[in-house]
Amino acid sequence: MVKKKQMGRKVEGWKAKSWFKVYVPEVFGKTYMGDTIANEPEKVMGRIISTTLGEVTGDYAKQQIKLLLRVATVTGDAAYTEFAGHEVTRDFMRSLVKRKTSRIDSILPVTTKDGKRFRVTVTCLTLSRANLSQVHAIREILSSFVRTYAAQADHDTFVREMVNGEIGKELLKQIKTIYPIRRVEIIKSKVESATPEVLASA
User: Fold this and answer.
1) Are 150 and 110 in contact (CB under 8 A)?
2) Using 50, 70 and 90 to split pLDDT, how confident is the model at 4?
3) CA separation (Å) from 145 to 108, 141, 167?
4) Which option is the CATH number for 90-196: 3.40.190.10, 3.40.50.2300, 3.10.150.10, 3.30.479.30?
5) Reported pTM
6) Percent of the chain with pLDDT over 70
């Protein structure tokens, strides 16, 4: 008898929940990506949804790029997300690292021209092993270029060109003039809060 009562409560709880259609951010086309369930809209707000760039764009050559999307707005049964960060899978990065070469990582705080703050990890892969002075010079270019690029772009432009690899391509052009490299990519990002000036004027 107790078991039946418990099962009955579970069924009633399940029936009380609703499905919400989840949409990717406008920067990725604001397309439908799937459903999530909750017993009220407030429970959906702030929920982190994980997907891949390949699934969002239909380009499955981009499956190694994991997107983290946060539900920012719920209207009716529609849940609209915003970009929360991204990461290139570790397996993919391991496949790129070769013997007798260097992997140079740089973790940078950057701010876009509309006051959105990110923490990004930029990785440069060389064709041969770099010495200490060369590593230092490459890191200087990584830091200066990405900070300047972010400061001149709005949030959506920075996110789009970071995730699709355009910033990495521009960095490749800059760095290969001083040292032979194979690839440059922003392999990880996390959205932080807006700058105090933006919060004050909001």
Assistant:
1) yes
2) very low
3) 11, 6, 9
4) 3.30.479.30
5) 0.85
6) 87
